[in-house]
From TrEMBL:
<feature type="domain" description="Copper-binding protein MbnP-like">
    <location>
        <begin position="32"/>
        <end position="236"/>
    </location>
</feature>
<dbReference type="InterPro" id="IPR023977">
    <property type="entry name" value="MbnP-like"/>
</dbReference>
<dbReference type="InterPro" id="IPR046863">
    <property type="entry name" value="MbnP-like_dom"/>
</dbReference>
<protein>
    <submittedName>
        <fullName>Metallo-mystery pair system four-Cys motif protein</fullName>
    </submittedName>
</protein>
<dbReference type="Pfam" id="PF20243">
    <property type="entry name" value="MbnP"/>
</dbReference>
Length: 260
């Protein structure tokens, strides 16, 4: 498949013997999408207590992988290589417990594209929350960052946690760990030869918004719709959690991620 090319053109006017660039906001600058976590339409700042189901809930972990990012024609949009990304995957990490002193949140809040991508030409943004089978079950010790993080890995058999959300209050806690299930292998230390029976890959197809189109928003309240927060309603795909897992998977298939 082809790639989205950035049109390398000089635009501007000559003045006093110098070329003055105008209307070329992408020229020389990295193409990226900011990623925000919102609850009830409001950005969640670092260390904020969320007023949900009695109040006093804090986010301890909010991480998720995005992969197979494409345009409306199914052409891949290459990503920059850094500690949070490979050429085809990105880990978003919006942490709350490790706040920096200046009020910023530690982690990664953006998807940064390669130099050939021009986001202004993308009419629809398509991607998957999760990792494709061929990347999901490789040896994490030899994988590049961010596919080598033990906090986002189950076993070779099951693969990675595609998403990890954990909330805590003074008296209780709740967790959601998304990943593939029904992965058959000789042992937990072996990779499956065939795709898992429940890949649990969540596909998104987002039209270009009327606004600036430079932000992806993950709506935490939409993920939690219909879920009572307590340990018993957690979903880490263990026995006894099926009802909660089915509800959360259904919620993910709705408009949990928005392009604005």
């Amino acid at each position: 498949m082809g790639r989205i090319k950035r049109p390398w053109v000089l635009c501007g006017v000559w003045g006093a013997g110098l070329l003055v660039l105008s209307g070329c906001g992408f020229l020389g600058g990295a193409q990226k999408l900011q990623v925000e976590l919102r609850y009830q339409g409001r950005h969640v700042p670092c260390g904020t207590s969320l007023n949900m189901q009695g109040g006093g809930w804090y986010i301890e972990h909010s991480k998720f992988y995005l992969s197979q990012i494409q345009n409306e024609d199914g052409e891949p949009l290459d990503l920059a290589d850094n500690q949070w990304q490979t050429g085809e995957t990105a880990l978003i990490s919006i942490e709350q417990k490790d706040c920096w002193r200046d009020g910023e949140m530690a982690g990664n809040h953006e998807v940064r594209f390669g130099p050939e991508v021009d986001l202004s030409e993308v009419k629809r943004l398509r991607f998957v929350l999760g990792l494709p089978f061929e990347l999901n079950h490789q040896n994490p010790l030899t994988q590049p960052s961010p596919l080598n993080l033990s906090s986002m890995f189950w076993t070779w058999q099951s693969g990675h946690k595609f998403a990890r959300f954990e909330l805590r209050s003074v008296a209780d806690s709740w967790a959601f760990h998304l990943g593939s299930t029904g992965c058959e292998a000789d042992s937990k230390l072996r990779s499956p030869a065939q795709p898992c029976s429940n890949p649990n890959l969540i596909e998104f197809d987002l039209p270009r918004p009327a606004g600036s189109g430079n932000t992806l928003v993950f709506h935490l309240d939409r993920l939690l719709e219909g879920i009572t927060l307590n340990r018993d309603n957690s979903c880490t795909f263990h026995a006894g959690e099926m009802q909660s897992c089915e509800k959360l998977l259904a919620n993910l298939h709705k408009s949990v991620i928005e392009w604005i």
